[in-house]
Amino acid sequence: TxxxxxxxxxxxxxxxxxxxFVERELRELRDGDVLVENIVLxxxxxxxxxxxxxxxxxxPFKLDHALDxxxxxxxxxxxxxxxxVGTVVRHGLGWREHAVLADQYAxxxxxxxxxxxxxxxxxxxxxxxxxxxxxxxxxxxPGDSVFVSAAAGAVGSLVGQFARLxxxxxxVGSAGSAxxxxxxxxxxxxxxxxxxxxxxxxxxxGQAFPDGFDVYFxxxxxxxxxxxxxxxxxxxxxxxxxxxxxxxDPKASGPRNxxxxxxxxxxxxxxxxxxxxSLRPEFEQKVGQWLRDGDLTYNETTWNGLDAMPEAFVxxxxxxxxxxxxxxxxxx
Length: 332
Ligand code: NDP
Hints:
InterPro entries: ADH-like_C, ADH_N_2, ER, GroES-like_sf, MDR_fam, NAD(P)-bd_dom_sf
Pfam family, one: ADH_zinc_N
Domain Enoyl reductase (ER): 15-327
Order of helices and strands: EEEHEEEEHEHEHEHEHEHEHEHE
Number of strands: 15
Number of domains: 2
Shape: globular
Helix content: 25-40%
CATH superfamily of the largest domain: Medium-chain alcohol dehydrogenases, catalytic domain
Keywords: Oxidoreductase
Bound molecules: NADPH dihydro-nicotinamide-adenine-dinucleotide phosphate
Organism: Aeromicrobium tamlense
Mean pLDDT: 97
Distance between the termini: 19 Å
């Protein structure tokens, strides 16, 4: 089987020298183990900071070891009673074609006719992040106006739609191309959208919200956070979810107007989705229902084959994806 190792820690965008493709034998199964053939793999932004040798909420990837991350696959050999051959599972050993793992580290999925990739996106970690961040961390209330950055991506596209479905007054997103802006307003039914690559994020956010907004869902940091601090209403709430504008930039700077948070009595709350496990049943039920009712527009950008992982990852970090970035190894 083949897997991808971290050969070198990147500076800036990870290039081909970052990776080593390794062919190796799978280990023998022990009692309770399953052998999974991966069907779809995910690339997610948090993987970039994990390539650096810095202390964070997840330990860094180890040099000369396989990278890991979310995956959905099918059990093809089993010594587990709970996960027989043919079971579709989600687990954490991505970046490889096959995985041998103890059954407690794999979650059985009920696909309900949905594609496997949905369980890495709208019904997986990004969907859970959008749900927990909006409803729990930012304490969204019907009638709130909401601003979300990286709004055409996996998390952001769901934040905006969840807010609309839950009764937002106004939802505006920011994204990095005219096509993405059109997608947000035309298909995802945002009230407005801005293209941050047109510049003047500060001015554009102000114009998009003549009456301010109550919630900012921050995926980007930097200039977006600065603009949000400027234009958010008094007692506004911010869910600090990510800061992708800085992930490849060692000299990234923060907002210069943090003092606004004082005068406006803002609540800024960072969060990590894994701390919101108790919300998972509600999230799966609610979002599953919205999907079945046809209320959600869900987009993916798919790369094919393990060899495409590096390209998919750079694509994710540079905005080549619309919606969830997925790498597909085989048909469902
Ligand atoms: P996305 O699908 O949103 O992909 C990343 C997007 O970021 C790209 O498509 C690109 O879109 C945008 N982007 C890249 N560089 C910049 C930049 N300099 N300024 C503005 N936008 C940029 O990824 P996810 O939805 O998976 O993740 C979104 C955010 O949520 C990330 O910050 C991630 O780290 C965070 N996250 C946090 C979690 C948590 O538990 N706290 C869990 C999951 C995700 P564009 O074309 O618009 O530039």
